[in-house]
Amino acid sequence: MNKKLLGILLCLTLLAVCSAPALAQARHPQAAATAVAPNAVPMAPLDPAFVKIFSNLGPPTNAYDATNGYFVSGHTNQFNGQKQDIAIPFTPTVDSTVMGVRFALQYYGYGFNGAAVAIFSDAAGLPGTPLAKAQLKDFLPFGSGCCQLASWRLRTGLAIKAGTQYWVVGTTNQTSMDSVNTWDFVWNDQPGTFAFQQDNTGWLLLTPADGYPPSAVAVVGTQP
């Protein structure tokens, strides 16, 4: 084998070795785990004025897995300096108006205690553009147990169409760029479909075949 070809093969090998960890990192959302006390407070009932449009929450005393959660973090945080966004898809079965969203969001203890939340349109099976957004704050600490939820009551209802996919997104903004929060897993840790992105490098879709549970959330509102 000539020296030129050997050099090319060596460069390709080094590139593959150096790139593999980065690619693996890109396919795995960053998460936290903790040992927590038994369920502290049962989940409050969903607002009786509204109907359930979507929910992956469990029973009132086990609404989500409070021992595990994906980071929803800003890029200036003092924990890992990484921005991470999480998005959960949902598809209404009938035309609906979103009036509220409830999240299993908890505070990881760095920076601003809060996160930006939104409902996004769909773009070819990934989150598209925000249709409604808000800033939430004062989450309970991660590790405090289940089952109090962070609530977003929309000031103006958001009309959504039957059979169209939308996304509930947890992210950060100027207010929360130094924060680290966790969006806790679904109650039974069942793998599901969701998307994540890190440092605004583009959304990646995970499916049940990838083995990751989605974060816990419920969408409520009105229907004809």
Order of secondary-structure elements: HEEEEEEEEEEEEEE
Low-confidence stretches: 1-25
CATH fold-type name: Jelly Rolls
Distance between the termini: 74 Å
Q: What can be said about the biggest beta sheet?
A: 6 strands, antiparallel
Strand order of the largest sheet: 8-7-10-4-12-13
Mean pLDDT: 88
Total domain units: 1
Q: Strand pairing plus helix content: what structural class?
A: mainly beta
- Coarse shape: globular
Strand content: 35-45%
Highest-level CATH class? Mainly Beta
- Count of individual beta strands: 14
- Helix share, percent: 10-25%
- Tally of helical runs: 1
Q: What CATH architecture label applies? A: Sandwich
Structure, described:
- The structure is a single chain.
- The protein is mainly β and 224 residues long.
- It has a single domain, classed as Jelly Rolls, CATH 2.60.120.
- The protein has one helix spanning 3-26; strands at 31-33, 51-55, 64-73, 84-90, 96-103, 105-110, 114-123, 126-137, 150-160, 166-171, 180-186, 194-198, 204-206, 217-222.
- 38% of the residues are buried.
